[in-house]
Design the sequence.
């Protein structure tokens, strides 16, 4: 079944399929195309996907060499501005291919087929593209929304459990950002979601994407309410950095961070304590560990102070009063220590 909706953001069309393969007919390919995948996703390329640029796996592929490979393949076709770059892969493939599409002839057609839950929910939608340079992640990039995003939940069957849960944390987070039935459905369908039931995911993933889509449409260049999507991220990113990038999967750190955001809101007197408890129960029921330890609180606080979203000398934390009621506020060091000390080893 094809579930679809269109976003106002450059007319991005999102479609989700409960089929067990990528059908070339789903793409309605009437234009020339260059496919981009990696060594893990090349097995899912449909027949006729030629030429295909196969990137190496992992973050190291997000570089100028990969972008130039894609551009060379586009020139070999040759692609025009109204033709397509089609990315099949996780966040690395989607970010790199989308950046290449944004600079090829000052922008050509772009279709994303994300293969991980995190890329389906997070990396594919919103128009952020980018590659790394030196030790700087996504330091070179652009805002370039895809014309079409195709979701195939069957691709999630092969993901390692930690990687699946990492993406799922973003789905659960989206359910907190709006007062809708998504939260209740994720609660009642937990067993099916954890078992990766394709039909259930075919319904829930587009609904989760629609939450992000409505926020991104209202703030495409991240000047205002789009910051709501960072719920749990400031706390979580600092833990990721402290433990070493890649040690703790991103989504698991975000789930932990959302729990800390709830506690901070309660300490501030802004968050309904019953709601905070409900949110923590929600994540724990899905198996998330909300009790990771902070090995060095002083270093952790220093990392928080250097958060990349720091503005006007302050770090604004994303908190909630209740579901669908999200706000930003700076937090004092005293309050942060109160919230974080129970999880600190030093």
Sequence:
């Amino acid at each position: 079944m094809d579930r679809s909706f269109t976003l106002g953001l450059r007319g991005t069309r999102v479609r989700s399929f409960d089929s067990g393969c990528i059908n070339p007919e789903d793409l309605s390919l009437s234009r020339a195309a260059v496919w981009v995948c990696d060594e893990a996703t090349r097995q899912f390329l449909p027949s006729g996907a030629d030429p295909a640029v196969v990137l190496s796996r992992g973050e190291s592929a997000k570089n100028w060499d990969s972008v130039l490979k894609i551009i060379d393949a586009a020139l070999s076709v040759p692609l025009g501005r109204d033709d397509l770059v089609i990315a099949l892969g996780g966040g690395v493939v989607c970010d790199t291919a989308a950046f290449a599409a944004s600079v090829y002839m000052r922008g050509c057609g772009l279709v994303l087929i994300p293969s991980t839950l995190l890329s389906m929910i997070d990396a594919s939608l919103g128009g952020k593209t980018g590659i790394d340079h030196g030790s700087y992640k996504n330091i070179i990039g652009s805002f370039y929304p895809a014309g079409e995003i195709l979701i195939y939940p069957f691709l999630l069957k092969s993901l390692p459990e930690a990687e699946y849960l990492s993406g799922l944390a973003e789905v659960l987070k989206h359910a907190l950002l709006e007062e809708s039935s998504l939260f209740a459905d994720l609660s009642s369908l937990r067993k099916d979601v954890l078992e990766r039931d394709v039909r259930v995911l075919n319904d829930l993933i587009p609904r989760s994407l629609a939450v992000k889509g409505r926020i991104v449409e209202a703030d495409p260049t991240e000047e205002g309410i789009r910051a709501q999507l960072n719920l749990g991220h400031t706390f979580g990113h600092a833990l990721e950095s402290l433990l070493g990038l890649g040690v703790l999967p991103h989504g698991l750190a975000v789930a932990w961070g959302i729990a800390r955001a709830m506690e901070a809101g309660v300490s501030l007197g802004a968050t309904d304590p019953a709601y905070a408890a409900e949110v923590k129960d929600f994540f724990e029921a899905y198996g998330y560990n909300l009790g990771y330890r902070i090995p060095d609180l002083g270093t952790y606080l220093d990392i928080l102070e250097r958060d990349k979203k720091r503005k006007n000398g302050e770090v604004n934390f994303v908190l909630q009063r209740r579901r669908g009621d999200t706000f930003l506020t700076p937090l004092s060091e005293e309050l942060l220590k109160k919230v974080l000390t129970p999880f600190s080893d030093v």
The CA atoms of residues 221 and 261 lie 24 Å apart. The first strand starts at residue 2 and ends at 6. The chain has two domains: 2-214, 231-343. The two ends are 53 Å apart (CA to CA).
